[in-house]
């Protein structure tokens, strides 16, 4: 008896399709994780003018009632209490 060859039917195509779909999902997952990481990094950094604990406060300027300017950098070396409040 001779060797019989098995006919390659749709099962080979299904395996290729499944493998391709699996690789697509893996690549999509890696891309999603990378994007989430980049967004998380950017969100935690924030704009450069935001105060962070343990760092000097960003410089700002306020106007007194008589029109004079007061800058935070001009008060360096002194104790400064900043009270932000509002009313409705």
Tell me, what's the shape? rod-shaped
Strand content: 5-15%
Main β-sheet, in a few words?
A: 2 strands, antiparallel
Q: What is the number of independent domains? A: 1
Order of helices and strands, N to C? HEE
Distance between the termini: 97 Å
Report on this structure.
This protein has one domain. The chain has one helix at 10-45; strands at 61-63, 69-71. It has 88 residues and is mainly alpha-helical. Helices cover 41% and strands 7% of the residues. The longest helix is centred in the N-terminal third of the chain and has 36 residues, at 10-45. The chain is built from 1 helix and 2 strands; from the N terminus they run H-E-E. It has a two-stranded antiparallel sheet. It is rod-shaped. The mean pLDDT is 80.
């Amino acid at each position: 008896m001779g060797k019989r060859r098995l006919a390659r039917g749709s099962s080979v195509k299904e395996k290729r399709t499944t493998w391709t779909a699996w690789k697509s999902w893996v690549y999509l997952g890696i891309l999603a994780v990378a994007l989430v990481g980049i967004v998380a990094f950017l969100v935690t950094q924030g704009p450069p003018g935001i105060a962070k604990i343990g760092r000097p406060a960003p410089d700002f300027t306020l106007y007194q009632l008589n029109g004079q300017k007061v800058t935070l950098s001009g008060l360096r070396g002194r104790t400064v209490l900043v009270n932000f409040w509002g009313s409705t």
